[in-house]
Design a protein that fits this description.
homodimer, about 240 residues, mainly alpha, Arc Repressor Mutant, subunit A, Tetracycline Repressor, domain 2, about 0% strand, elongated, repressor (chains A, B), transcription (chains A, B)
Chain lengths: ~240, ~240
């Protein structure tokens, strides 16, 4: 694999890359339509218009295709993190992520495939390992973005950045699932509301309600406000995100 | 089906109910282990220890079994809503839900099955219809609980209760997924953090940071705080939850 990568579209490498991409695209189409486990390699071959020999040259099977798709997700996640890092403010960055996730998974086939890949990752060790890696990278990248925002005073410094990153990621997944099951609603309303909630949640002053003591029970948020805000110095060596 | 239900354990109805429950349990075990689509009816029969005739007497196939499982979820959701309604405060109620969801789906097989059912509901019309119904009931029940809390002054009255219910539901789903992929972490830490975030989010005074204007960009939360808090009168006729 140490061949020099030629930029000429007709080069064997570029042709192979294109074919590989075509197989991935065709497989994605099949998976979206009938699901990962109900799709056979024969159906993928038929959808691609290539013979089995050609398809198996690139992928040993469906699991290898899923892995390649997850790797592709990783590249997209990296690109998203870079865009978020370049945003004007943390609010803009998070609003951008909410919008991008909402749009990317609006089609039910896409939301279904994402959900199925998660389910697969909970059962298959191989898919699970790939997912865990991409998840760890994403969460670390997002954590760094949050730490920088804290250091800049754009974000409540008392928040645990890593936990907040996990929370936001979970929230976006939940939004994608809800977006599907409430598809009859205004498609803009749900992402807009999630966006509002995030902004509200991460507001710099946090929640220090003078009315809090009037509420019955001691809200757990007191644990947060009780923490002395620490100035978090971002680890600049990690700022390449991942 | 208008037979009188006898309470005697040996009655034919009770026996049938038990057998039906056994089939559901066995199927759940298979689905958790190998996934919904990779499990055959034969495997379910083998796990149950019953012949195919007995199994098919209760369920026409795997889809009918999934439906029965979702119906069972519905009963559990109703019970959870009733418990939440009886909680001391809305903070207690939501903390209880966070804890219950975290515990119930801690095992990866359970989280995997939940995720797979969602994926199935995004593709199969039949499963999707059942899921939409249970989802609508849950969201309506939670919305009512939030409205009552608003009316009691325990919760920011400017929040859209229905959207907040959707947001919370999405957040819990996300927590369950994250809980799986970060299983190496302290199992209590993630639910505790989600709990803190919820309390922070729903604090009665909302987010009216005097420092907000210093942050770059106009945070979307201003849309919320700009809304004149309306006293929401809960529809008491709906208070049977669902």
């Amino acid at each position: 694999m140490a061949t020099r990568i030629s930029k000429t579209p007709q080069s064997p490498t570029a042709k192979a890359d294109k074919k590989r991409g075509d197989v991935l695209k065709a497989a994605g189409k099949c998976f979206r339509k009938t699901g990962f486990h109900q799709t056979s390699m024969q159906q993928i071959c038929a959808e691609t218009g290539l013979g089995p020999g050609a398809v198996y040259r690139y992928f040993t099977g469906k699991e290898a295709i899923i892995e390649a798709m997850v790797e592709d997700e990783r590249r997209q996640a990296r690109a998203m993190l870079l865009q978020m890092r370049d945003a004007e403010s943390i609010q803009d960055a998070l609003a951008m992520a909410t919008r991008m996730f909402a749009e990317r998974y609006r089609a039910s086939g896409d939301a279904g495939l994402m959900t199925e890949v998660y389910a697969e990752g909970m059962r298959s060790k191989r898919t699970g390992a790939v997912l865990r890696r991409i998840e760890a990278e994403w969460v670390m990248g997002l954590t760094n973005i949050l730490r920088v925002a804290q250091a800049r005073g754009q974000l409540d410094a008392s928040l645990d950045a890593a936990q907040t990153a996990l929370f936001l990621t979970g929230m976006w997944d939940g939004m994608i699932i809800r977006q599907h099951f409430h598809a009859h609603d205004d498609p803009q309303a749900l992402p807009a509301f999630f966006d509002n909630m995030i902004a509200r949640l991460l507001a710099r002053d946090g929640s220090k309600p003078e009315t809090r003591s009037k509420a019955a029970g001691q809200p757990a948020a007191d644990l947060l406000t009780g923490v002395e805000p620490a100035f978090v110095r971002p680890d600049t060596r990690q700022m390449s995100l991942i």
